[in-house]
Amino acid sequence: NAAGLVCGDDFRFGDWGRGTAQGLAQICAQDGIPCQVIPQVWKDGAVVSSTRIRALIELGQMGTAVELLGHPYVLTGLAEPCPRYGVPGLTAAKIMLPKELVVPKFGLYVCRCRVDGNSYEGVAHVGTQPTAAGIGITVAPWVIDCPVKLAGREITLEFYKFLRPDRNFRTREALGQDILRNTAIAREFFRKEKP
């Protein structure tokens, strides 16, 4: 009951990958099913592929990954409570990084948080929360001017830019000041870029 198929022109399927995109198009034509074969897209001298984009995300080159994707890298999950570290005006939460997704380079990113149909600017930390002695890979956003508690809600995080690598702070107050500095950078990013 397929309504139609779309594949890249280098798509392979079947026994030992003998099936080609052109062969798939022929099979679909016989059965009256639309099939669209998409030619390769090149950017900066290399093919745009999921492998290339995954590598960029793992290296923290989020700006280039966003450019190739045509949209921000997105994570969705159920938010859990997370300390604010004494930073006024910010709402904090955390989600566990799903195991099947690519792990962005540990560190802090400019992000946008979508919750209950609304969008808020902020930053998000990807890592193991060394200052808070956390376990497992978590994604912890600090969101600007969010009037609702994020914990218990499904949130969607959009990643736009890598700000700094993972860092261990001597005190939670020092971490709070760093978050405050970086949320100001995030606000300026969205003011200029308007993604």
What can you see in these coordinates?
This protein has 195 residues and is of the alpha+beta class. It is 26% helix and 33% strand. The protein is built from 4 helices and 13 strands. It has helices spanning 21-31, 50-58, 62-69, 172-193, and strands spanning 5-8, 12-13, 19-20, 35-38, 42-43, 46-47, 73-78, 90-92, 95-96, 107-115, 118-127, 138-144, 154-165. Strands 7, 8, 9, 10, 11, 12 and 13 form a 7-stranded antiparallel beta sheet that branches. Strands 1-4 form a two-stranded parallel ribbon. It has a two-stranded antiparallel sheet with strand order 2-3. The two termini are 38 Å apart.
Topology readout:
Elements lengths: L4 E4 L3 E2 L5 E2 H11 L3 E4 L3 E2 L2 E2 L2 H9 L3 H8 L3 E6 L11 E3 L2 E2 L10 E9 L2 E10 L10 E7 L9 E12 L6 H22 L2
Parallel strand pairs: 1-4
Antiparallel strand pairs: 2-3, 5-6, 7-13, 8-12, 9-12, 10-11, 10-13, 11-12
Helix pairs in contact: 2-3
Short account of what is shown:
This protein is of the alpha+beta class and 195 residues long. It has helices spanning 21-31, 50-58, 62-69, 172-193, and strands at residues 5-8, 12-13, 19-20, 35-38, 42-43, 46-47, 73-78, 90-92, 95-96, 107-115, 118-127, 138-144, 154-165.
Measured on Cα atoms, how large is the radius of gyration?
21 Å
Q: Please give the share of residues in helix.
A: 25-40%
Shape field? elongated
Please give the count of helices.
Answer: 4
Main pleated sheet: 7 strands, antiparallel
Q: Care to count the β-strands?
A: 13
The overall average pLDDT, rounded, is: 89
First-to-last CA distance: 38 Å
User: Which structural class is indicated by helix and strand composition?
Assistant: alpha+beta
**Proportion of residues in extended strands:** 25-35%
Order of helices and strands: EEEHEEEHHEEEEEEEH
Low-confidence stretches: none
